[in-house]
């Protein structure tokens, strides 16, 4: 599968309804299976959550500033979408650790950092199904202010500042590049093997 990736300069607030089929095509003219990233606040109210565990708990998602990754994948199952999500978050954790020098722990689709006192959540992530595709949202905190759980952001890890997002952009572009290469590598791994009969 070929996955297009794109960094979006425009700042946008993520509220939940953006997780819908063809949003990337409609808003950014990105065609086919793709992941786009942008920076903005996060404010997802309970009625816009797609995670039933969170909805039943009347949860919400909030952070002053996040880098948001929106993905849409065509021609795969929901289980494959979840595997892509786990791969994506593993890559994100690896690259955050590399650039920050901090130890990042992944648990399922969540990333955590221990500041020496508490373990703090760095990310949110969900995959869901639409009639035509599988949809991904992954948010990595920059400034976790307002989060409903103990959380930290990339600024706390020394990656970028509110005045200088250059290191954040470099990190995001690296995450997107590594993910794209992994997905393409999976396709080649499937195509290159001699069948056993």
Low-confidence stretches at least 5 residues in length (pLDDT < 50)? none
- Beta fraction of the residues? 25-35%
Q: Quickly count the helices.
A: 4
**In CATH, what is the class?**
Alpha Beta
Please state the overall shape, judged from the principal axes of the Cα atoms.
Answer: globular
Question: If you had to describe this structure to a student in words, what would you say it looks like?
Answer:
The chain is of the alpha+beta class and 197 residues long. It has one domain: Bira Bifunctional Protein, Domain 2 (BirA Bifunctional Protein, domain 2). Helices cover 30% and strands 29% of the residues. The strands form two sheets. The chain has a five-stranded mixed β-sheet with strand order 1-2-3-8-7, covered by helices on one side. The mean pLDDT is 93.
Outline of the structure:
With 197 residues, the protein is α+β, with helices and mostly antiparallel strands. It has helices at 23-28, 52-56, 78-100, 166-191, and strands spanning 4-7, 34-44, 61-73, 104-107, 110-114, 119-121, 123-129, 134-143. The two termini are 26 Å apart.
What topology does this entry show?
Blueprint: E1 4-7, H1 23-28, E2 34-44, H2 52-56, E3 61-73, H3 78-100, E4 104-107, E5 110-114, E6 119-121, E7 123-129, E8 134-143, H4 166-191
Parallel strand pairs: 1-2
Antiparallel strand pairs: 2-3, 3-8, 4-5, 5-6, 7-8
Helix pairs in contact: 3-4
């Amino acid at each position: 599968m070929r996955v297009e990736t794109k960094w979006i300069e425009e700042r946008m607030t993520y509220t939940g309804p953006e997780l819908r089929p063809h949003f990337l095509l409609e808003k950014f003219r990105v065609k086919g299976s793709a992941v786009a990233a942008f920076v903005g606040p996060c404010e997802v109210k309970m009625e816009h959550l797609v995670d039933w565990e969170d909805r039943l708990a009347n949860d919400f998602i909030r952070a002053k500033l996040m880098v948001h990754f929106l993905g849409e994948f065509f021609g795969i199952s929901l289980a494959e979408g979840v595997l892509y999500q786990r791969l994506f978050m593993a890559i994100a954790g690896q690259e955050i650790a590399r650039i920050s020098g901090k130890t990042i722990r992944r648990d399922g689709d969540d990333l955590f950092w221990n500041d020496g006192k508490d373990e703090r959540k760095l990310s949110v992530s969900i995959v869901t199904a639409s009639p035509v595709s599988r949809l991904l949202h992954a948010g990595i905190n920059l400034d976790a202010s307002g989060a409903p759980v103990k959380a930290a952001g990339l600024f706390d890890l020394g990656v970028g500042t509110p005045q200088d997002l250059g290191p954040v952009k470099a990190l995001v572009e690296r995450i997107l590049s590594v993910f794209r290469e992994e997905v393409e590598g999976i396709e080649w791994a499937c195509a290159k093997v001699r069948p056993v009969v």
